[in-house]
Amino acid sequence: MPAGLSSPANRLSFGVLMNAPIESIAAKLSEYDFVVVIDKSGSMAEPVKAGSNRSRWEAVQESAMTFARDVGKLDADGIDAVMFSGNGVQSYTGVTADKVKEIFTQHSPRSSTPLAEALTEALKLAGKSDKKDFIVVFTDGVPDDEAAAARVIVEAANKQETDDALTILFIQVGDDASASAYLRKLDDGLTGAKFDIVDAKTVAEADAFATTAELVLAAIND
Question: Residue 185 CB: number of other CB atoms within 10 A?
């Protein structure tokens, strides 16, 4: 991504953001544990956009490293990560930006998109402490079982006591129209949930935010 999450700048160090001092922003975000969920299905090997020499897999690696670096400044024990495809779901704890790079060397895009299973694993990691939880999901396509993934989200939302106890941000990598429609449905058309805990952004929309912190706060407040 050309800006936003992919910028090499220290995205949480700016003095003023969203009309609030950085101290208050840091205090707000320090209330959260963070989990990054990464789609490694076969379609992630495709170009990030038509005519590009850069794959979706390469783009998401850069974004995940930046996210881990930025929020890691607020979470001393590192973030957690989930990698998923039809070949299985793998989770990692205490992940730093350097560890993200190492994890990517152990995986490559292949098989299908079991999003429901990946979300279930992410929620297990998210429940490990009394902190609020923020899950960001990088994905490029429609999941194997759309209804199952939606059910996992609804069940999680209905267990919450407050709206901000859990936030799930989906960032769409690539330009698959079916994926866009599905993520919009999760964001704005999910039925049966006590709280609206989902926000969805395209890569371009995520890049429009000046900082990672701003992106995270916008999702929490969505």
Answer: 15
For every one of its 222 residues, what pLDDT tens digit does the chain have, with 9 covering 90 and above?
334 454 444 344 333 344 455 677 788 899 999 999 999 999 999 999 888 999 999 999 999 998 998 888 877 778 999 999 999 999 999 998 889 999 999 999 999 999 999 999 999 999 888 999 999 999 998 999 999 999 999 999 999 999 999 999 999 999 999 999 999 999 998 999 999 999 999 988 998 988 889 899 999 998
Query: What sign results for the dihedral spanned by CA atoms 141, 145, 146, 149?
Result: negative
Estimate the crossing angle of helix 177-188 against helix 146-159, to 10 degrees: 20
Question: Pick from 182, 193, 211: which is nearest to 26 by CA?
Answer: 211
Closest of 145, 81, 80 to residue 114, by C-alpha: 145
Kindly indicate whether the domain formed by 33-221 is annotated with CATH number 3.30.1490.100.
no
Residue bearing tokens 């079916």: 178
Domain positions in the chain are 33-221
pTM of the model: 0.90
Closest CA to 206 of 196, 195, 216, 192: 216
Question: How would you class 210 by CB atoms within 10 Å of its CB: exposed for 0-12, middle for 13-18, buried for 19 or more?
Answer: middle
Report DSSP state, residue 12: T
**CB–CB of 40/81 below 8 Å?**
no
